[in-house]
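Structure record:
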Amino acid sequence: MGIKVLLVDDQPLMRMGFSMVLAAEDDMTVVGEASDGAAALRQVAALEPDVVLMDVRMGTMDGIEATRRIVADYPATKVILLTTFDLDEYAFAGLKAGASGFLLKDVRPAELVQAIRSVYSGEAAVSPRVTKRMLELFAPRLPAPGSAQGDGPYNQEVIDQEMASLTAKERGVFDLLALGLTNAEIADRLFVSETTVKTHVGAVLKKLGLRDRVHVVVYAYETGLITPGEANI
């Protein structure tokens, strides 16, 4: 069956178009469809898809809330948001909710397929640089680190404990990941191989309990470890 994909969009023609693209791939199967977030939750529970293509704006339950619940209750299922604009506040909110990336609805078939494969393998379907740009635009609207309105248990004690779990080399990689740098760029900065960087990235994700490198960027901003001003170095 390969990669099991669930399509969630309130437009039947949009779901049909994505379904036709994925049907041509030997390693992917569309296991179900849903027209809103509530139906998506039921389908995820019943079908256990590997990847969900999730529209952001839908009735009954929008894609952001559905993503938050899927990530919390079905951590093995990855979510890719479908949006109209690449620097969309809703897409940003979706990344905060735990999505592994977002795609424009007019994405080219080859890019759609590659994004699904990337997310399935543990990568992200959006460049960390794009995530950083979104954070620079929308970070001023974030609650202060550790505030009661925050989405995570980010008080200073928790932050200090989590960062103390990183070795000096892992912290160096974390800092550069938070700036949106690629593995090649990090390797160049730290004078190490890309393989070494990849190993450190894996350790950082595991120790901090983050889904992928995009969420390193989100975590760094939400905890106050990096600010928009610092991101321009």
